[in-house]
Amino acid sequence: MLADKRILLIIGGGIAAFKSLDLIRRLRERGAHVTPVLTRAGSEFVTPLSVSALAGEKLYQDLFDLTAEAEMGHIELSRAADLVVVAPATADLMGKMAAGLANDLASTLLMATDKRVLIAPSMNVRMWEHPATQRNLATLKEDGVLCVGPTEGDMACGEFGYGRLAEPMDIVAAIDAALSDGPMKGKHVLVTSGPTHEPIDPVRYIANRSSGAQGTAIARALAALGADVTFVTGPADVAPPSNVRVVKVQTAAEMLDAVMAAPAADAAVFAAAVADWHVANAGPSKIKKDGNGLPELRFAENPDILATVSQLTKGRPKLVVGFAAETDDVIANATAKRLRKGCDWIVANDVSPATGIMGGAENDVTLITADGSEDWPRMGKDEVATRLAQQIADALL
Ligand code: CTP
């Protein structure tokens, strides 16, 4: 799988940098080409000569190395690779990546690349557990950056805990997975996500509560399996994944238009919390408290996007998945909703305030299909997404 793949390997400055030499060796054994980049701090731990000798390629170190610019500019360097790997990824490098800084060769390459990036973090356990590092990690994951490790164990600094660089063979496996096609290669999946905002006037709106976290995680998980994803999102709290086609909308009507305009899909997942009504008498200017009593809003029903797509006679996706966020009689309501809307699967969940699911990191779902229902244990929204994406992949086989 790795034969003839080009890896741009950025070696950060950490005690684990010596393991990058073994990583280079193992990648080359498998036929990969490794173009090494050594940060200034990295060169305190491994010598430029040993890195370039093992890689068998020119080593890049300095952004302002004019000879290198004459041979290959940093933009080109960042794009010639199939995958960019950062090992070890130090707290400093992760911070730069999350903040979007580009003040040396490594950080500039990471900003300029249009390829996937895999990081293998390594640092002291306190640094790893620091809220700033965890915040940066969450940001990087949201940006679609892949991560392997760190693992738990004794550290060079004498402490014990998480922070050890993943073993070179685990990094090789993660590189292999990142470069493999995945079971959804060649499939197009449409995902709706987030709330819709229905204007009352130019400054006010009605909406459903939704962070967009579950829909975003599903789009990311499908893309990780190799799917081409069109992600139609209302104004969500979380950033959309970076490796999907994003279409931003505000209202249910706009969401329907975007869904209908999307290329034909093999599967569609409707995770959006679409407002059921819009304000029919929404005003073009701000409603004022002018002493003439309270404004009267007239509601009109929004199009049901899930039902519209489920009932298409031409161009219906092979698999249509809806969501049913309920507060009472979850299974009975969701089962009836599946039949009423005409979708194939419904992911049902209880969103009563006591569950903490709305806006939280976890979800507790039941998957309802024509064959019955499957109760999943409560798990992280990312895990729900991974499991659902895998089942969608299996169904499309
Ligand atoms: N949905 C949609 N378009 C709408 C309303 C809902 O596509 N106008 C989709 C949602 O994305 C979700 C499913 O339909 O996949 C169920 O949404 P939900 O709000 O639970 O259902 P409603 O049809 O609004 O039913 P009710 O309000 O009666 O529970």
Describe the fold and architecture.
The chain has 397 residues and is of the alpha/beta class. The protein folds into 2 domains: 6-179, Flavin prenyltransferase-like (Rossmann fold), CATH 3.40.50.1950; 188-396, CoaB-like (Rossmann fold, 3-Layer(aba) Sandwich). The protein is 34% helix and 25% strand. It has 14 helices and 21 strands. The protein has helices spanning 19-29, 48-55, 66-71, 74-79, 91-99, 105-112, 125-129, 131-142, 168-179, 213-224, 252-261, 305-310, 330-341, 381-396; strands at 6-11, 33-38, 83-89, 116-121, 146-147, 151-154, 160-164, 188-193, 197-201, 204-207, 228-233, 245-248, 267-270, 277-279, 299-301, 319-326, 345-350, 362-363, 365-369, 372-375, 379-380. An 8-stranded mixed β-sheet has the order 12-11-8-13-16-17-19-20, sandwiched between helices. α5 crosses α8 (131-142). The chain is elongated. The relative contact order is 0.09. Cytidine-5'-triphosphate is lined by residues 192, 252, 270, 272, 274, 276, 302, 304-306, 322-325, 337.
Short key terms for the protein model shown above:
21 strands, alpha/beta, 397 residues, Rossmann fold, 2 domains, five-stranded parallel beta sheet, single chain, eight-stranded mixed beta sheet, binds cytidine-5'-triphosphate, elongated
